[in-house]
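Pasting as-is:
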Amino acid sequence: MADLFQSTTIPVLEQVIQFAQARHTVLAGNIANIDTPGYVAKDLSVDDFQTRLRDAIQQQHQPQPQSPGELGSMERMSIATTARDAKSILMHDGSNVGVEDQVSEMVKNHMQHNLALSIMASQFRLLAVAISEKV
């Protein structure tokens, strides 16, 4: 059964959804602290995440001996290692949080999250059809 799920895009989509959820939390924290003097906005690096995800996918397609208890590369990915400070203009009070930038990033992140969920739902429907052998 594990091979069935690993042969789909479900593990990759799971990582994308988890990253989007974690990034949404960070961006919401930035907006919550918009009026905090000296607050420095935080973000999760989308580029770093995409690079690590691509590397994990490539490693997954290469045959590697694994012991029964060893986790695959998709499970080892850590969202925390992609955290970084956001780059933006420093405000007069020492903060660098711009509400327009943060909301824009949240909207893009939300769209990515919803797209990954839609694709995952489609994958589950295909698996359900394959399992039930209905065409």
